Request: fold
Amino acid sequence: MRLFEVTKERLETLNESGSMSGVGAIHIDEIEPTLDYLEKSLGMELKNNVLGSVGKKEFSGDIDVAIDVEPDAMPELLDKLKTNPDIIDIAKSSVIMTKVKIANYDPNKKSDRARTGFVQLDFMPGNPGWMKTYYHSPGEGESQYKGVYRNIMLATVAALYNRKDSEEQTEDGRSLESEQFLFSPTKGLVRVKRTPVPKKNGDGYTKQNNNVIIDGPWLTPEEIVKVLGLDNKADLNSFESLKNAIEKNYPAELVNKILDSIRDNKQIQDMGIPSELEMSEDILMYMRKLA
Reply:
């Protein structure tokens, strides 16, 4: 199965930036009629390909939809959207951003975000099945944390579970060869052989690594939990469910490595370390000694 590259690798659980002029939030009751109308108008499947938290909370800042389109067919799709009267405005960046009218708009439904009667709908090229897995977001009330926490946790689990490193290392401590899983925004979960890239002058290695896929991809939650030694697809639902799953299924040494890596992750630190990972320095030092 060929996966299409998404040129902007958005680890955060999808854009709610309202980049188009005059757009606002959409209520959960308005999403289905809006997509029903556009499916008929455009002749495209939309409802089954929505991504992230759309339809899981009362208000959504925008609607993100995966579209299975070959790169050479993109100009034709753009022309189709530009000439459709129900696409009020359109712009292309790494995704196709559009402004559409909200069907069954109810101005009495108030949000802390602007409500204009129009919403931004982003068309994101890629494999819909994989993108729904990658951009999964827990429903309202299911997690304290955004989907980006879950994805960073899942990427860390993949990098450390069943990892095989050579004893030989570079000067900066990287293995000269490592077999590991990689949770890729564009390729799915894959098994790679990772090697440091040599300097052109032959004197040592650069900071970059070269990844060669040797197995996979695994695209569905059912496949991923099986490969990563977890129980069921519900384990992948949120940061909390994934943490509970590794603590249940992995040895303590591996769990500590994963959680330490999460604490040390710069993006996690910038967003705020989850309360479940906050420990005193004395406890952290003791756990690291045990590991």
